Amino acid sequence: MSAELPGVPPSDDYPIRCRKLGQLIHYGYCCRENQGLPCARTLDCWYPFFNVAEYLRGVLSSEEWAVAFTTPAQPKLLSLVEMIERAQKNVNKT
Length: 94
Hints:
Layout: E1 16-17, E2 24-25, H1 27-30, H2 42-46, H3 52-59, H4 62-69, H5 76-93
Antiparallel strand pairs: 1-2
């Protein structure tokens, strides 16, 4: 007999270890990490804690779902270079 998972995400005081960043992260970060969309790993990381797929299908449009979960992830090196470039731009603005 298996218990049904809750259909709502845990509060932000419930962090889990992020396999991408290597630190504790709350769901609120994961659901907007990808330029306002969920991280591509959100479904894999959060499924043990709540019915994340059902929840996200209810809050995302089909286009947003496709961008978040079916678009191939860019290589880690490229994403790191982009993050460094954004940080440099932010430093130069001040």
